[in-house]
Structure formats: structure tokens, C-alpha cells
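A.,

Following up on our hallway conversation. C-alpha cells first:
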């Protein structure tokens, strides 16, 4: 069909169609507005007008939102941790003695005086002995407990709770209990472990413990400390053992390896990261140990440590310069121990 289709009578307003019907759609009242205004073209196919949108709201970058959430904690840590550390270091270079602050500068005089102090040298030796016995004892006991639980002992949940229970007790409560266990009384005054040894016919094991005149008396203090932290070490080792695939151990057994060889050549290398972390954590705790020794026997110089020396020289003697110097030396010691671990961890993360 060529040309537009026309219905007879469609050109006249109110006209009739071929069957005498009125053509409603052709009257001016029923025409589209643009047709009434004389607009040419197919109005049904005109492109729609663009919708006006409200201006976009810029999204806050993720790092900026995270920084905003962390900023209160960062401010508090910056003021009450690093700010006080800086203030303590500053005091260590002054001659502040007494309640009146003195902020003069004396250089390294306090550090030289501390190095020449006989009590400081004794305390440094004590902390080395305490740390060695404490770390080795906690590692050995924690590893044995983890090995027993890893074998799938019955009632594992119960034993795991028992082993972890000492960690839930504060060092003050632990010291009060072990002060009785390490009692060095004799005769009718015998109590604690000495009484147990006597009842078992092991009287030759009797000891004066931390009240001994021996220079190794501080080693006795490592007993309650190791007892308290061995459960934590057990949890670390147990998690490390459970992370070793069973196929490794089964392959070694198929090749004829004994249980001891499986432990030494398969499990030991896999547990090196756990052991390294446990050693660093225990050393860090040993350097800061204060409340355990203070509650056990605070007046015994045989078990004196730098943390106790810092407390007494600062708050009992009023030598704030000496106390700040001891605290700074302890901080440097902790940094030397923790620093390599953090560096090793960052390198492993980058790999």
C-alpha cells in the first residue's frame, strides 16, 4: 500500500466512517497536543527528554573512614603510651630527686651510675637466671602437656581446661599459694613441698627455695611463674601440632620412622614458628614480672629484679631519675627482643 491510509470522512471534524460511525480520534479535542499545535513528524518516536539527576555524593575513601574510626584509639595510645615513654626517657636524663620536678640535663650520668651500681648488677644477673629457668621450664612443661593431648586422650576438654586454669589466676593469687608451697620451715613448722617430700620419704629433696643463701635462689621463683604460663604454652603447641597434616606423619611412619623420629624430623621443624613466638612472649613476660615477686617475698634481695629495684628506688626512695633510667633500660631490652620478631614477621608477610 503506497501513501498514507485515509479513512473517508477522517479529514472533517466530526465526520463519519465507512459504516456511518463518527471518527472520534479525528476531532480536535482528541488529537495530541503537538498535533493540534501543528508539529510535524511522528510524535510517538521522539527521543525521551533526559532525566535530571541530583548531583552525585562523593564517597569517602575506605582508608579515610578507617582512620576516622581508629583515631580515638591512636590518640589515646599516642598520649598515654608513647607520650609517657618519651616523658620517662626525658626524666632519665635529669637529676630529679624528691617530689619537686627537676628537668635539667645531666647527659648519661644516670646510666653510668646505674652501670656501676652493685645492686643493679645483681638484679641483672637475677633476671637472666629467672628468665632462663622460667622460659625453659614453661616450654618443656607446655610441650609435654600438648603432646599428651595431641594423642587424643579421653576427656581432652577437661584436661585442657585444667592445664589452662593457672593462667586465669592472677600473679598475686599465685604468689600467695606458692608462698606456702615454698615454705622453708623445719620440724613442726614444715609445710608445702618440703612436707610432701618428707611424707614420701624424699626428705633429701628439702630446700630453702627462694629464701636460700645461694645466688641461684631466684630460680625457685621461676617455679610458680612457669606453672602459671605453661598452660598458655600448651595451647600454642597444641594448635601448632593440630595444624600439621596427618599425611606427613603417616608418610614418615610408612617409611619406617619411629615415633621419636617423627617427632624430631617432622613435628619439630613444623613447630619452629610456634616455639619462636612462645620464647619471645615468655622473655617479654619475664622482664616485666613484678607482682609475683613482690607478693612472694618483697624484702628479699636474693630475688630482687630490675622491676622491683625500679619500684623501690622511685616510690620509696624518691629517686625518680634512677627509676626512669631503670625503666628505659628495661624498655631497650624488650625492644631488642621484640624487634627482630617484628622484622621477621613483616618479611614473611611480604613474601
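Then the amino acids I'd put at each of the 351 positions:
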Amino acid at each position: 500500500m503506497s501513501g498514507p491510509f485515509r479513512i473517508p470522512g477522517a479529514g472533517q471534524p466530526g465526520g463519519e466512517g465507512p459504516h456511518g460511525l463518527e471518527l472520534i480520534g479525528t476531532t480536535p479535542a482528541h488529537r495530541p497536543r503537538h498535533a493540534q499545535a501543528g508539529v510535524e513528524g511522528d510524535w510517538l518516536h521522539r527521543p525521551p527528554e533526559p532525566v535530571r539527576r541530583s548531583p552525585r555524593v562523593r564517597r569517602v575513601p575506605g582508608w579515610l573512614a578507617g582512620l576516622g574510626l581508629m583515631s580515638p584509639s591512636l590518640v589515646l595510645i599516642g598520649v598515654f603510651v608513647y607520650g609517657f615513654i618519651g616523658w620517662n626517657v626525658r626524666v632519665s636524663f635529669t637529676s630529679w630527686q624528691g617530689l619537686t620536678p627537676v628537668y635539667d640535663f645531666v647527659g648519661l650520668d644516670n646510666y653510668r651510675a646505674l652501670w656501676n651500681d652493685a645492686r643493679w648488677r645483681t638484679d641483672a644477673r637475677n633476671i637472666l637466671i629467672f628468665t632462663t629457668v622460667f622460659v625453659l621450664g614453661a616450654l618443656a612443661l607446655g610441650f609435654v602437656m600438648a603432646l599428651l593431648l595431641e594423642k587424643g586422650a579421653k576427656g581432652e576438654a577437661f584436661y585442657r581446661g585444667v592445664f589452662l586454669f593457672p593462667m586465669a589466676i592472677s600473679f598475686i593469687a599465685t604468689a600467695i599459694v606458692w608462698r606456702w608451697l615454698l615454705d622453708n620451715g623445719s620440724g613442726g613448722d614444715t609445710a608445702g613441698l618440703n612436707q610432701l617430700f618428707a611424707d614420701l620419704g624424699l626428705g633429701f629433696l628439702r630446700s630453702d627455695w627462694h629464701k636460700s643463701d645461694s645466688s641461684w635462689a631466684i630460680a625457685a621463683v621461676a617455679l610458680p611463674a612457669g606453672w602459671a604460663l605453661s598452660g598458655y604454652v600448651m595451647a600454642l603447641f597444641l594448635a601448632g601440632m593440630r595444624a600439621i597434616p596427618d599425611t606427613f606423619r603417616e608418610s614418615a611412619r610408612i617409611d619406617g620412622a619411629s615415633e621419636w623420629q617423627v617427632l624430631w624430623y617432622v613435628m619439630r621443624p613444623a613447630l619452629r614458628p610456634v616455639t619462636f613466638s612462645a620464647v619471645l612472649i615468655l622473655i617479654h613476660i619475664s622482664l616485666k614480672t613484678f607482682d609475683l615477686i613482690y607478693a612472694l617475698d618483697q624484702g628479699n634481695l636474693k630475688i630482687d629484679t630490675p622491676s622491683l629495684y625500679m619500684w623501690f628506688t622511685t616510690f620509696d626512695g624518691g629517686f625518680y631519675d634512677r627509676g626512669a633510667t631503670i625503666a628505659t633500660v628495661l624498655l631497650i631490652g624488650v625492644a631488642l627482643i621484640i624487634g627482630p620478631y617484628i622484622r621477621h614477621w613483616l618479611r614473611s608477610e611480604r613474601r
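Residues 1-26 have pLDDT under 50 and may be disordered. Curious whether your intuition agrees with the design.

B.
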